[in-house]
Structures are given as structure tokens and as C-alpha cells.
């Protein structure tokens, strides 16, 4: 059951779940019987009748793949679905990661992901590889069981960090970033998706070193198409102006790395 890739991104489409892969104890990847034209960093809005809609970062476009952690009502309902079940979605939506034309086959990029934020970065690594761009990806997690081994792009060096040292390097993703720069590694661009406090520290490092950097910033989204304003962040609308922002844009946001807003619009501190 293929969907129409030419259908406007704001219109709902329905397809079957073609395959479900267990990534770890709480994360699954859902492959849909659908292909769309999209780029790394963009997202789709998935709808489950009686539950609602939620934005999900794309892990692939052809076929569509999303990787979802079971952390709430919607994600729990998603995890209860089986291969062959129908699912509806809108998209692609949002601005993608940008690989500037100045990044060529001789370039090297650094990808810094935390938790399931590694998913769109793995997608970006595959697209970069098609252009002959070398990438190093840092995957940060709390412990071995939380690591998402999703980057299968040949030629991509993966560095795993865990807070407790149960897999890979003992420490966090920023520790690994600092270690690479201490070793004298140089990068033409840096891309990141993950916990916001991690990304703020990364942003400050990239500004200090004068490296081009883009970040995927998450905010509570209801419509995904710039109608409700729920995902506003300091004058920008995340679903329209993001979710990908340059490091200079992100550091102008007072909330970045400090707080967010819940479904009602109430300001909350980052934990």
C-alpha cells in the first residue's frame, strides 16, 4: 500500500506498518509501506485514532522509517501496534539539516547524538556518504542498554559513550567531543540532536572554535504546520523555522538549554 509521494505534506496519508525492529528494551523502529521525498532533520506527524498526533523525526524517507521510545501514552500505543496494522501520517514537515556546497568530498563532519537523537543523524550520515563526505558520529547514552545501534552507513566511524562506562568510552558525548579536538581533529561542520543541555554545551564549543554547526531543537508540537503556535521559541516557530537551527540562531534563544513549554504553554525548567 504505497502512498502518493506528490501529495501535499500537510494532507494525511495511510499505509501499513511493513516491519518493526527492536532497537533496545524501550525503542523500536517502524518501517512503513510508504516512500516520501524528504531530507534528514525533517519530521512527520503520526496519527493514532483516539490517541492523537505526535511529531516523529525521520530515520529514512524511502521507505519511511521512524524510531520511537516507549515513554508515554502515545508512544505506548505506537509500541502496541503490529506488522500489517494501518498507520496515518502527514509530512515531511520542517526544515532539514543543510550540507552547504562548501562541504565537499574532502570534508569531514561531526555528528553528536544523545539517546534516540542519533536517528536523524544516522540518516544524515548516509546522505553525506552519497556525496563522499566523511563523518564521525558520537552516540551518547546513560548505559549500555540505552545505546541505539542504528548507524549502518559504511565508512562512518562511531564513538559510543556511556555515563557508567558499561559500553564504549566512560563519560558523555561532550567529553568525547572535547577529546577529539584535543587530539587535533578538525571538522568542516557539526550536527547534533539530543538532550538540549548537551547541545548548548556543544554550541558554545563550536562558536568558540568558529565551526559551522546545526542543531535539532525539539518543542511541544500540536499542528506541525505553523497554525497553533504551541512550539514557539523566542519568536520563532519550531515546526516552521526549525526544527533545525544554526548554532547562532539557537544561542539567541533565551530558553535554549534552560527551559521549554508544556502542552498548555506553561514554562518548565529542563531537568
Name the CATH class of the largest domain: Alpha Beta
Give the DSSP E fraction (strand runs of 2 or more residues).
25-35%
Pairing-aware structural class of the strands and helices? Answer: alpha/beta
Number of domains: 2
User: Based on the structure given, which CATH architecture of the largest domain is correct?
Assistant: 3-Layer(aba) Sandwich
Residue-averaged pLDDT, rounded? 90
How would you name the oligomeric state of the polypeptide chains in this document? single chain
- Total number of helices: 6
Poorly predicted spans: none
Which overall shape is indicated by the principal axes computed on the Cα atoms?
Answer: globular
Describe the overall structure.
The structure is a single chain. This protein folds into two domains: 13-93, Translation factors (Elongation Factor Tu (Ef-tu), domain 3, Beta Barrel); 108-269, Nucleotide-binding domain of ferredoxin-NADP reductase (FNR) module (Rossmann fold), CATH 3.40.50. 20% of the residues lie in helices and 34% in strands. The protein has six helices and 17 strands. The chain has helices spanning 73-80, 118-130, 173-182, 196-209, 238-241, 247-251, and strands spanning 13-22, 27-32, 43-48, 52-61, 64-69, 86-93, 108-114, 134-141, 157-162, 169-170, 189-193, 212-216, 232-233, 236-237, 244-246, 259-261, 267-269. The strands form four sheets. It has a seven-stranded mixed beta sheet, with helices on both faces. The mean pLDDT is 90.
Amino acid at each position: 500500500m504505497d502512498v502518493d509521494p506528490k501529495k501535499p505534506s500537510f494532507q494525511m496519508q495511510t499505509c501499513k506498518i511493513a516491519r518493526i525492529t527492536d532497537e533496545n528494551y524501550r525503542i523500536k523502529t517502524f518501517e512503513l509501506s510508504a516512500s516520501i521525498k524528504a531530507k534528514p532533520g525533517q519530521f512527520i506527524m503520526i496519527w493514532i485514532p483516539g490517541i492523537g498526533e505526535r511529531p516523529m523525526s525521520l530515520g529514512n524517507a524511502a521507505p519511511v522509517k521512524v524510531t520511537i521510545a516507549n515513554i508515554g501514552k502515545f508512544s505506548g500505543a505506537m509500541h502496541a501496534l503490529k506488522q500489517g496494522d494501518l498507520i496515518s501520517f502527514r509530512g515531511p514537515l520542517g526544515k532539514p539539516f543543510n550540507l552547504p556546497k562548501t562541504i565537499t568530498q574532502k570534508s569531514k563532519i561531526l555528528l553528536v547524538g544523545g539517546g534516540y537523537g542519533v536517528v536523524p543523524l544516522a540518516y544524515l550520515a548516509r546522505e553525506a556518504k552519497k556525496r563522499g563526505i566523511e563523518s564521525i558520529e558520537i552516540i551518547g547514552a546513560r548505559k549500555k542498554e540505552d545505546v541505539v545501534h542504528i548507524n549502518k552507513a559504511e565508512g562512518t566511524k562511531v564513538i559510543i559513550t556511556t555515563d557508567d562506562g558499561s559500553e564504549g568510552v566512560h563519560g558523555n558525548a561532550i567529553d568525547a567531543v572535547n577529546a577529539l579536538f584535543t587530539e587535533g581533529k578538525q571538522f568542516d561542520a557539526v550536527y547534533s540532536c539530543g538532550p538540549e543541555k548537551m547541545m548548548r554545551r556543544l554550541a558554545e564549543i563550536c562558536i568558540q572554535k568558529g565551526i559551522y554547526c546545526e542543531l535539532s531543537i525539539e518543542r511541544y508540537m500540536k499542528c506541525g504546520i505553523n497554525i497553533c503556535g504551541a512550539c514557539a521559541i523566542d519568536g520563532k516557530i519550531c515546526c516552521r523555522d526549525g526544527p533545525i537551527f544554526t548554532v547562532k540562531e539557537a544561542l539567541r534563544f533565551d530558553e535554549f538549554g534552560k527551559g521549554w513549554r508544556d502542552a498548555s504553554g506553561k514554562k518548565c525548567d529542563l531537568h
